[in-house]
């Protein structure tokens, strides 16, 4: 088998066999195939696309390129949740304790943020002492004894994906549904979950900007998961404005805690209800959405979810006093409110611009080697549909480097679109994709 023959076959629009895809992944991961040949094949895939069978084969080949985590020692049905990334998306910090407090085992492998989208591990590291690198034995023990553990992914999982993504990034072949889906699902499937709930974001702050693209990606990932024996569902959720009000690591931790105290923003609370209900159904804790949502509401009202977060922090070495004392989290030296010399309503908020503003303040990273300022970030004081006057603050910026303020301020002002007429936010939930059905809301 030769690489040039595989490239030519795909260039001409033919379907690659499982053996040919395995050869490509194995040879490229091992360093036996030069970048220029791999790039040529990626470009052929970009233009000719892949069939369902090819996409499943590619996902399996990427999984087989590295270690696979066996969670068989954990009791119960392990349900994982994955978000395609957004601005202000602190969902795991609130959702994992909610689901765990209701008896579903949460064995969560999370990642770090890059660019304007944040990562769960970075946010958790804002909690003093919190350890995100757990040995496998400790990870399993924590889930069996406490129903919850959150850890970073080992570098030995899906090494082919890391190498392929770096090449796609510099060859303009990132935006292909099959390549995106296989990249995401290979990591989820290699992490040992029994079932998967996908949160596919759509809008200005999401990777997929249009509803059509988001539904296509979600369907592709659900098909992959189910084809590989994992019960997989996906929700399409809105990211045309940031989720909640807080953007930035320590600020998002506070907002997640406040949500578990019953004081969270309405959109974030709704997302936790929707995603959590799907997780509880797949874990066979609840029989339907109505029962699941009532269970989630009760876990917040009786503080069992908040207590589970406290327990998570303690078993992973963190200082659980942050639950009631936010001053223990990283604190920014400066904060400044942004005001507009207008009166009216917020028509829209470009989530990507807000994310870039937070990045400018130091809350994100341009490369994986960049150092994050865990205290930097933004609180949005006005969301879509809110009325404001020239004396009202639309946002508060938190920062430590005064030279970074001006760029962030410009981006925040640019993010806000205003109207003289009353406005309403878009619906948060756009659809649900299950094995054999697509439901549009």
Automatic annotation (TrEMBL):
Q: SMART domains from the xrefs?
A: PYNP_C
Record InterPro entries: Glycosyl_Trfase_fam3 (IPR000312), Glycosyl_Trfase_fam3_N_dom (IPR017459), Glycosyl_Trfase_fam3_N_dom_sf (IPR036320), Nuc_phospho_transferase (IPR035902), PYNP-like_C_sf (IPR036566), PYNP_C (IPR013102), Pyrmidine_PPas_bac/euk (IPR018090), Pyrmidine_PPase_CS (IPR017872)
Quote any Pfam family the record assigns. PYNP_C
The answer to whether keyword Glycosyltransferase applies is yes
Q: Which GO terms describe its molecular function?
A: pyrimidine-nucleoside phosphorylase activity
Q: Does the keyword Transferase apply?
A: yes
Question: What EC number(s) are associated with this protein in UniProt?
Answer: 2.4.2.2
**Pyrimidine nucleoside phosphorylase C-terminal domain residues:** 345-419
Show the catalytic activity.
uridine + phosphate = alpha-D-ribose 1-phosphate + uracil; thymidine + phosphate = 2-deoxy-alpha-D-ribose 1-phosphate + thymine; 2'-deoxyuridine + phosphate = 2-deoxy-alpha-D-ribose 1-phosphate + uracil
Keywords annotated in UniProt = Glycosyltransferase, Transferase
Entry function: Catalyzes phosphorolysis of the pyrimidine nucleosides uridine, thymidine and 2'-deoxyuridine with the formation of the corresponding pyrimidine base and ribose-1-phosphate.
Its quaternary structure?
Homodimer.
Q: Which family does it belong to?
A: Belongs to the thymidine/pyrimidine-nucleoside phosphorylase family.
Descriptive protein name: Pyrimidine-nucleoside phosphorylase
């Amino acid at each position: 088998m030769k690489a040039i023959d595989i490239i030519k076959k795909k260039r001409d629009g033919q379907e690659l066999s499982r053996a040919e895809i395995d050869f490509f992944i194995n040879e490229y991961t091992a360093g036996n195939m030069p970048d220029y040949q791999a790039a040529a094949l990626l470009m052929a895939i970009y233009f000719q696309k892949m069939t369902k069978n090819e996409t499943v084969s590619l996902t399996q080949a990427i999984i087989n390129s590295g270690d696979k985590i066996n969670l068989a020692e954990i009791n119960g049905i392990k349900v994982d949740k994955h978000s395609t990334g957004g601005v202000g998306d602190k969902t795991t910090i609130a959702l994992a304790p909610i689901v765990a407090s209701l008896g579903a085992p949460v064995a969560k492998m999370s990642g770090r943020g890059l660019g304007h989208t944040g990562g769960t591990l970075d946010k958790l590291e804002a909690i003093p002492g919190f350890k995100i690198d757990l040995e496998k034995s400790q990870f399993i023990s924590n889930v069996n004894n406490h129903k919850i553990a959150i850890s970073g992914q080992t570098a030995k999982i899906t090494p082919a994906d890391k190498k392929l993504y770096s090449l796609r990034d510099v060859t303009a072949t990132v935006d292909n549904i099959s390549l995106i889906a296989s990249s995401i699902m290979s990591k989820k499937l290699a992490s040992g979950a029994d079932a998967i709930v996908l949160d596919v974001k759509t809008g200005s702050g999401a990777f997929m900007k249009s509803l059509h693209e988001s539904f296509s990606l979600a369907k592709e990932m659900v098909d992959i998961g189910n084809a590989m024996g994992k019960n997989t569902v996906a929700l399409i959720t809105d990211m045309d404005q940031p989720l909640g009000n807080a953007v930035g690591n320590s600020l998002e931790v506070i907002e997640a805690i406040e949500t578990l105290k019953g004081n969270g923003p309405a959109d974030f609370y709704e997302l936790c209800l929707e995603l959590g209900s799907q997780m509880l159904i797949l874990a066979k804790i609840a029989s339907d959405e109505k029962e699941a949502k009532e269970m989630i509401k009760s876990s917040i009202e009786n503080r069992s979810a908040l207590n589970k977060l406290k327990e998570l922090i303690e078993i992973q070495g963190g200082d659980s006093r942050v639950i009631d004392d936010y001053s223990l989290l990283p604190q920014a030296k400066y904060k400044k409110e942004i005001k507009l010399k207008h009166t009216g309503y917020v028509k829209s908020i470009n989530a990507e611009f807000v994310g870039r503003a937070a990045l400018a303040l130091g809350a994100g990273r341009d490369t994986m080697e960049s150092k994050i300022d865990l205290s930097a970030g933004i609180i949005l004081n006005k969301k879509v549909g809110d009325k404001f006057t020239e004396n009202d603050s639309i946002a508060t910026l938190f920062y430590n480097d005064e030279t970074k303020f001006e760029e962030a301020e410009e981006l925040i002002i640019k993010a806000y679109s205003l109207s003289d007429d009353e406005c309403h936010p878009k619906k948060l939930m756009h659809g649900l994709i299950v094995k054999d059905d697509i439901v549009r809301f």
